[in-house]
Structure formats: C-alpha cells, structure tokens
Amino acid sequence: MMQILVVEDSRDYLGLLKDGLTLSGYDVLTAEDGMEGCEILANTNIDLIISDIRMPRLDGIKLHAFAREMDRYKKKKFIFLSGYKDMYSSIPKLDPEIDYFLEKTTPLNAIIQLVDRLVF
User: Fold this and answer.
1) Contact status, residue 42 vs residue 73, Cβ threshold 8 Å
2) Who contacts 95 (Cβ-Cβ below 8 Å, separation ≥6)?
3) pLDDT tens digits for the chain (120 residues)?
4) Are 112 and 89 within 8 A, CB to CB?
5) Which of 28, 53, 62, 105 is most buried when burial is the number of CB atoms within 10 A of its CB?
6) Contact indicator for 120, 97 with CB cutoff of 8 Å
7) Alpha-carbon dihedral angle through residues 88, 61, 41, 98, given to the nearest 10 degrees
C-alpha cells in the first residue's frame, strides 16, 4: 500500500486530506509541522509527500530541503499546498518532474486525482 505523508498545521484541513486519501485507498501518516514531518521521513519509507508551506517550527520549504538531502527521497514526488498564491515563487529549486504546487482552494477530488496520477 502506498504511504503518503501529509504535513499541515491546520487540523481541520489535515483531517480533510487524511480522510479523503484514506478513502481512496492510501495509507496516510500525518504531521502538524515540518519538525514532525522530518521525524517521520527519517524513520519511515514514504512514497509521496504533501506539505503546507507556512507552518510553525519548520516550514514546508525546509522540509522539502531535508527530504531532498536523503537518498531515498531525492526523486520522490512532493506536493506543496498553500493558501497563498505568491508562495510558489518563494520555493527554491523546484524540479517540474517531481515537485508540484497546489493552492488550498483546489478541490479535494482534484488533489486526489493528482495523487493517483503521480503514484501510478
């Protein structure tokens, strides 16, 4: 079963994403900030990472950098989510083959469709 890590500091939005992905057949691990996300990445083999950008303690950009430093995550797909359109330009070194950006206004079914496309 595909393991997805969702990192999001809004508990409501985190729950929405987790429920939708779980109902779609994915095994979903969650973290409420980038520090928790790094701990999960260090101790688990994740197939896809979905992360908010603005979070307390450690933001999504630093989480992305942490993941890319590890051999097993150098080429894993990473989806950034943000409620701020201008955040896209603040993300350094995106690889269009493996890095994606969605606004939080993207409907849940569209997020799940992207996940389905990326993991199969």
Assistant:
1) no
2) none
3) 899 999 999 999 999 999 999 999 999 999 999 999 999 999 999 999 999 999 999 999 999 999 999 999 999 999 999 887 776 677 777 888 999 999 999 999 999 999 999 987
4) no
5) 53
6) no
7) 40
